[in-house]
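2 proteins. here.
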Amino acid sequence: MQALHKIENRMKNTPIERHLIDETINEFQIVDFSKATIREVKAIASKAEAASGVEFIKMEMGVPGLPPSAVGVKAEIEALQNGIASLYPDINGLPELKKEASNFIKAFINVEIFRVHAIVVLSVSNSRLQKLLYNA
């Protein structure tokens, strides 16, 4: 109970009143917000944004509204000029990326993933599809 009180105290000074967020979550009948889908979170944020007039920075779909890095833009232009748009990636993935994904998982959650099993995807939807295909 003391931990909950500490969290509530930290939540007092927020740009949007806490009760507005709580009411919106309740309207969506979400019991555990940590288990809400990306679309539910987006809908709640949109409703709270409209009701409060405070804009949210939306990062759930990879479009945070921030300008892209000049280095990234330059690299994308070069890749397109070099014909990347007409190529498919290796179906087995990039060995370097799979190695680093394996290292990342080991370093942060101490779980060993064999590189061959590391599947790097672009979004949650793609990862669900990969899991479905992998388990088929």
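next one coming up
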Amino acid sequence: MPNTHNPFEEASPEAHRHKGDTLLNEGHYEDAITEYDNALSVNPNCAKTYNSRGIAKRTLGQYFEAIEDFDEAIDLDYNFAEAYYNRGIAKGMLEHPGDAIGDFDMAISCKEDYAEAYYNRGIANRKMGARSEAISDFSEAIRLKSDYAEAYYSRGSAKRDAGEYFPAISDFNKAIRLNPNYAEAYYSRGSAKGNLRHPKESISDFNKVLELKPGYVDAYYNRGLAYQSLGELETAISDFDKAINLKSDYARAYYNRGINQKALGNTKEAKADLEQALQLANQQREGLLAEQAKDGLIDL
């Protein structure tokens, strides 16, 4: 019997999808999309392929196109938890957390132990100002995944928003134990210690942040505030210098540098900084800061 196999026969849709998945995992998103396109041209009824192509498009910032793919995946498989989840992420990236919550709800209803869906619903709830709901979601994510460093960090951030500084610090501690290089957790723990009026302890955390991420502008600014509260004004000015070098429109850094220059008797430098702070505050519509800058300019 003759061999009828054609070595030039087109790859199957499954082969294209698997190749697309490999490219997606390797970060070759456009090439992955091409493979998913090829798979769908042969089999347009594969929900997994639409979902994967949506992930690639979302990663490239093509959020509306990604949502269209997740819609297709859901139309083909109404109980596709990951497609709801990924659509929720895309809506969140478009700054529509309220719409994202509905998708995370559906993802959880399809997959009750979906820790990532609880976590991201918590992120969306926090953005919507629903702090208690956010904390509840982060807690459920932690219950389902006990080593979820990001969930501990986010729950701590929500608690800090509520003025619960000690519970927040406990969560940041746990996040850091799980991920010793978690710069954001050190930063937030340092900020919470600053809220509790313990600047020396907060400086230690800000130092660690800057060791991990030397360009972390807010760490320089808040370390400057800590030094300022300790009366170490020249050291504070040095940190405000660094913050301004990294972010030239940092109105609060100009303001606080100006206040310190004024306290040190450096009238010319203080006037220049406070005038710049006033100009930036007006541009950025920060009315309270503008008033503070005006008050600081008195007698200069």
